[in-house]
Amino acid sequence: MRRTIAAAACMVSLVAGAGRASTSAAPEPIKLAAILSTSGPSAPLGLPQVNAVKLAEKDINAHGGINGRQVQIDIVDDGAKADVAAQLATQMISSGHVAIFCGTRTDTSAAVARVTASGNVLQVYTTPTESLWRTPRGVTKTLFEVNPRDQLEAIALLTFAKTRLHAAKIGILHDENLYGSGGSTIAQNEAKTLGMTIVDDESYPGTATDFTAQIVKLRDAKPDAIVLWGATTTPGLAIKAARSLGVTVPILGSSGIGSPAILAVAGGAAAGEVYSASPLAPVAFGEQKSFETLYDGEYHARANPFAAMGWDAVHILAAALRDANGKTDGASLAGVLETGKPIALVEGTYKFSPSDHNGLVANDVHIVKAVNGMWGAP
Amino acid sequence: MLQLLIAGLTVGSEYALIALGIHIVLRATRVVNFAQGEFAIVGGLIAFSCVDALHFSVWIGLIAATLGGAALGLAFEALVLRPAGRGGESGATIATIGAVFVLLYGHALVPGWGSEGHLLDSFGGNNLVVPVPPLINQFKGLGPQVTIVNPQSLWVLGLLLVALAGLYVFFERSYYGKAIRAAADNPLGARLVGIDVRSARSISVALGIALAAYGGTIIGPITLVGGAAGLTLTIKAFVAAVLGGLDSPIGCVAGGLIVGVLEVFATLTVGNDAADPLVYTLLLVMLLVRPQGLFGRRDAVRD
Fold first, then answer.
1. Quick check: is B78 in a domain?
2. What is the CATH number of the domain that holds A261?
3. What ipTM was estimated for this complex?
């Protein structure tokens, strides 16, 4: 008995010693936080982002980390709630996380942006809402957008509608939230720039189950094409309603509708002629191709745009930290990104500047088409 | 026009069934059950699992959802309403608000359910194309010449009538139904004539929740099942019940259909942004002007 205790004590001291030895040999990992919506209505968007964040963490560490230090990314769920996201951001900053990836939704990203701006912490977000960083008071120094902004999407969608579909009259249907109403305003402006007419603009609540009134009004306005600005699975119901009420014109959706789940809800092949703006090319090449291969190897699934955004977000944070000479405050990291050194990633080559915290161009937006319930080449 | 009316009546049917459930639970327990809409969501998900995971027909799914709803109702009465009700009705009402969140976040943890919406199979049939009569066609600006009816809308309206007929027979014609009504209206008197008031209460709650689950299932093929819309449903149904009369089953059904139709026409005329405020303003006006509702008895307000 005494022998066993002695042996156990020996083991404990050995293990404790080993623990101490390892911490003194390797430098502390750099801690990043990912505040994503992995439950709630945006879970279909947030979950692939989580996969991509884990993959990016593994990839960066396998390639020697950031300047010899390993990266540790802590992923937390905001449940699609802005107040929860802001609370989590405060916790993450106070527990030593030097930069934040948040988030999946416009409202959570906006709430966290207030926390990171006042705390001088670098934040990247993945929704295409430009108004978060480009405010009436100027550019928010610490906030960067990793997704072609709404305006680039609107230009790409409407140019496609005009040149390829020969549409002149546009109807708009959008979610009443910040993402949808912002997208609608931008689409209206871009349509005017392109010399197109807006014949109707309708909105729906995020929990909408019936779209009859909106669709009937759109149908009566006789547009050549409908621009649909929304996210989660609800736009699928809108497409389904439009088709069952006899609306046959092409529907062009923002990147928020670019998940296969939306097409399943819309009725698969019955969804008709539907296009979506996508940060991913329908036929992968370059960085996108290597990312898709890596993602498929890890998860045995095709990487969707939301996964690509998660991958790019982490790599942009890493790129900033790599060139910041050990500084981790938001202003220094933002300064590194603003130098405009090209960062070639999945969604395009980002060239940020003090006046452009998006860094992409309209050519980085691809148009994909619904083909038998899947997104493919138009 | 007909198109919008059908859409409104379809959505309204779900409000009606949930409102009716609120009415039955309220009558038996004097508690407004704010979790009623969540039970509709869970009911729809039970049906979804039957179809999607177990490969049963959607009709089996409907039966399973209704029975599942009844079982959940029994558990809800025993575990939430009865213990929380010992401190008075307001305590139990607040407990139902707690139950909303337990059900909302709890259902997302069930494998295969998650927090997003799922599409339930249709109950059958193809789109019906109904020509608009030539007389109406002569007026310009009324839109297309046909009305397209989703067959599920007809199922929803038909199954609403089936549920109402079933409830009428149960409460008005059967011995048990009469006993339950007696127990709700006069617990002491009912006890004196030998009615088990406690079981009557349990059965009422089970029935109310089963109705919500039934409603959540029949509308599933049109909307989606699952997701976070439960509380919105409850509030709309509550507006419906107040509009029609909380103490009147016919009022609850009529109120549900009126709110559904009103919502669709309000979206058409004043737009989506103003439609919800309009519906809730109606609730306030109704409470001020006619608190007993369109079909309620004036003396019921005193309860």
1. yes
2. 3.40.50.2300
3. 0.70
